[in-house]
Amino acid sequence: MAVLLLVAAITMAAWIATDPYRVIRAEFMRQRIAAGLSKGSIDVAGHRWTYAYSDDAPASAPTIVMLHGFTGSKENWYPLARELHGRYRLLIPDLPGWGESERKPGTDYGFVAQSARVAAFIDAVSPKGTSSGASPRRPVVLLGHSMGGGIAALTAARYPRRVSRVGLLDAAGVRFDDNRFGEEVLAGRNPFAVSDVATMRRYLDTVYHDASAKPWIPQPIDRIYIARRVRDAAFEQSVLDRIGRSNERFLPGLEAANIHQPALLLWCRQDAVIDPSALRLYAARIPQARRMLLDGCGHMSLMEKPREVAQAVIDLADTPVTKPSEPKP
After folding, report:
1. Residue 130 confidence (pLDDT)
2. Confidence at residue 324, expressed as pLDDT on a 0 to 100 scale
3. Which of 24, 34, 142, 206 gets the highest tally of CB atoms within 10 A of its CB?
4. CA–CA distance, 66 with 81 (Å, rounded to integer)
């Protein structure tokens, strides 16, 4: 038995040594299974997508697609997915370029390009509909957080046959009131950059307000995570240049006036990334949206207040709607 344990330990150490990030992926797998989710992949819009999903819902239940934010991944949605499991069909992708989905050098991963890819993803994976319209698939409830919120806003505005309802959580894409995060972005820096333990803690302190929701990253896992973020630094900067400083940085807010579906605008009062003033700016463009401002949480509302967010999503998903038409070219 001692020899077997020694062999197992050596094998495990060698397995981790060839790819240290496997330790973090193993934890993500544990979280996914605990949330009742499976994992799938599909080739869509020139990229290999990896996504978590659950079909444990009534056949008539709406499908909810969830889009993560900048430096995020599908795993950010798992606490909310646990609250919604069994009530809706859930699809939670790593956006192209992020997480386990494919990244291609020199490719545009900004708001506009990603919204077109998301529309194609919805066409590929949402349940088949019964109509003979332009989209044979049933429209989905589309949720977006932070950068994903900007992508969701553009997708709902430009591809309304794909989206029956839209929820924007702490969404990027409008010129909110000045804060430290916004000032650093406009100055050309990446305030989310992680290069050592100090900057990792700064990053976590920026996005979380509720200390109890903040992930615990012990040694040596912190070193593995930091090394991954260092490797991704150039990619992160290129995306931030596109969504934070290019001529499309405020396009989601401008085109939100074309969102006529039922909508949810949800922010946290202590959000130090996308200032809560953004809620008011989006609301001016989407007057039919239900507005929620939660207290005691920061930028990660979906992880800090999953029960409150889940109830808001349920109210949105169960709202009766009429089918929108595609805009004429």
Report:
1. 60
2. 47
3. 142
4. 9
Q: What are the tens digits of pLDDT across the range 294-308?
A: 999 999 999 999 999
Report the b/e string of 246-255 with b at 16+ CB within 10 A.
eebbbbbbeb
Q: Given 3.40.50.1820, 3.40.50.2000, 2.60.120.10, 3.40.50.150, which CATH number is that of 20-317?
A: 3.40.50.1820
- Given a cut of 50, the residues of the chain with pLDDT beneath it are 5-16, 324-325, 327-329
Contact indicator for 286, 312 with CB cutoff of 8 Å: no
pLDDT at 170: 98
Give the domain ranges of the chain.
20-317
DSSP 114-179: HHHHHHHHHHHHSPB-S--SS--BPPEEEEEETHHHHHHHHHHHH-TTTEEEEEEES--SS-PPP-
